[in-house]
Known about the structure:
Oligomer: single chain
Keywords: FAD, Flavoprotein, Monooxygenase, NADP, Oxidoreductase
Structural class: alpha/beta
Protein name: Kynurenine 3-monooxygenase
CATH superfamily of the largest domain: FAD/NAD(P)-binding domain
CATH topology of the largest domain: FAD/NAD(P)-binding domain
Shape: globular
Largest sheet: 8 strands, mixed
Strand order of the largest sheet: 3-5-4-12-13-14-11-15
Number of helices: 15
CATH architecture of the largest domain: 3-Layer(bba) Sandwich
Pfam families: FAD_binding_3 (PF01494)
Cofactor: FAD
Number of domains: 3
GO molecular function, one term: FAD binding
Strand content: 25-35%
Amino acid sequence: MNKKVVIVGAGPVGLLLAHYLLGRDSYQIDIYERRSDPRTVSFSKSRSYPVVINQRGIEALSNIEGVFEALKATSVESVGSMIHLKDAKTRVLPREKPIYILDRTHLVITLLETLTKKYDSSRLNIHFDHRCKLLDFEANIVTFENVASTAEVCANYNLLIGADGSKSRVREKFLSQDLFEFEQKYIPYAYKSIFLTTDEPPSLQPGYIHTWRAGNGIAATLVPLRDGTISGTINFPRKNNAIANFSTTEDVVQFFRYNFPEISQLLSLEEAEAFLNRPISNILTIRCSHYHYSDSVLLIGDAAHATSPSLGQGCNAAFEDVVIFNTLLNEYSDNWAEALAQFTLRRKPDAHALVELSDNAFPMSDKLLFFEFFIRLRSAQILHQLFPKRFSKSLLQLVSETTLPYSEILNTYQNWITKVKQSNKRYMTKTEI
């Protein structure tokens, strides 16, 4: 008899987990997602932004036949980052191993299509437009509400997976359980997405992540995508920022002309108006004392350990969760009590370390410290190439080009993280006065 697994959340991590579990013989999967099927919703209405897939994610995707190949077909291969300076000069940070960039919607659709082509309704059912409403951990029942009809659906499970993001409903239920500790913080920065198109040959070199720093903690990141569009984010302090006070399209145009002249050349009036009306997005970081309940509930991905996107590790860390959980199922012969408990023990140190790394890898405003960061980065790359046994790879290389545990990376670069953390704290204190 198949064991029934209910996954809450049909985002990247929930769908990849379904791939892995269905690769085992004794699992039947039901996935519930509060949003609509992205294959039927127009792009403008979908939740999308660029997602970076690096070595951790590549290894996780490559374990499922055909998935990574399908993803590459819709991705841009990036060989480095290009930092744009105010004097129109650039600095290039090359990569030893390429990363792959695509928007979140295409990532989800790729995982969905490869999943549904391989498995039929005898083992897999996906329910879109279903909001998680009530959970009963003792009775192993979860209740969903159909957002269109408001009808309620009750689902029994042997194993419940909370893959429902940083504002997880499944994790919320953990708060009523004994000895569960939970920390939620908004990082000091917010962002707005930006989408650019041009009929001219791209002025931003393809194959690179392009970044700008405008001072006062304002920065921009753009990526030329495979379909010819350019997508990215404008990041800024949550407090005392000009962007929150924009009232007209002209305010937006002037802001880009002054701070990001290269971007302003690609900015249409339609996108300026859309940027004005687009909501400001805040970012949560999450730390939990454990990720499981008994032998029947598990938190995974952002539901367990949401982090800042500064290192591009959110999706990759979530995919790595899937690999680790699958490995534990192998080690303990699908004994859920052992596998779930071990997932907490093995994953928590690295998940907490990733939050620390992502929050404090980059200086917010100190120009001298940012210059030091660049020098450290290039020096580490060169020295490691010359003397690989004696000098470690750079922090960014270790995070994105290896699968070294995040806790070991934090230990290696603890002095730098502490230095940046103190600098950023001083900067935030000044901006809040």
